[in-house]
Sequence to fold (202 residues):
Amino acid sequence: MISAVLPKLDGITQALIAGAKVADVGCGAGSAVLLMGREFPKSQFIGYDISKYALARAAEKLKLSKLTNATFADPRDQPMATNNSVNFITTFDCIHDMTHPQQMMQSIRQAITDDGTWLLVDIKAHDSFTMNATKNPMAALLYGVSVMSCMSSSMSQPGGAGLGTLGLSANTAEQMAKSAGFSRFRKLDVEHAVNAFYEIRP
Ligand SMILES: C[S@@+](CC[C@H](N)C(=O)[O-])C[C@H]1O[C@@H](n2cnc3c(N)ncnc32)[C@H](O)[C@@H]1O
Fold:
């Protein structure tokens, strides 16, 4: 991430070196927050997740790391900023798992500064089942994972969007981001077997 992904984002490595406010939404056990926290000591990091198990692991790893520029929180207890004050927001492999991804994108827009950057990393998906099945050699595995995990997660609350593992194609992500108030959407030139990487800006 530090050497292959962040440099592809316009001005982000320099901003992190100088000192920026960063949130990782759907942070899981906190690896990305801790990795960036160690690399960029002048920046402040917060990881958000709704899983108490993930947050407990993140807290344990934070203690071992001895970092003082990172914290973790459940956004239901400590909501994300709504005053456009976060410079850089990351979401790794989690928007498609969320019950209300469109609402989350709106919250990200409310949190991010007007010149901020959202790094969206999600599964490399096409627009239809047929395209996924013919173009992605891992489609059978990914649809299996979807039924067992991602689809179940994304439909686990009433009205859940149910995007599932392969539900967030570049076109869908761009449309949703634009509906949430973002205007710039760029696919990054990052080689990865499973994931696609997007720079999204207000
Ligand atoms: C597949 S995991 C990815 C975790 C981590 N980003 C990674 O790459 O290892 C998806 C995460 O999204 C979290 N999640 C789902 N809905 C969320 C929400 N509304 N707000 C914050 N986190 C959420 C889940 O609890 C889970 O930890």
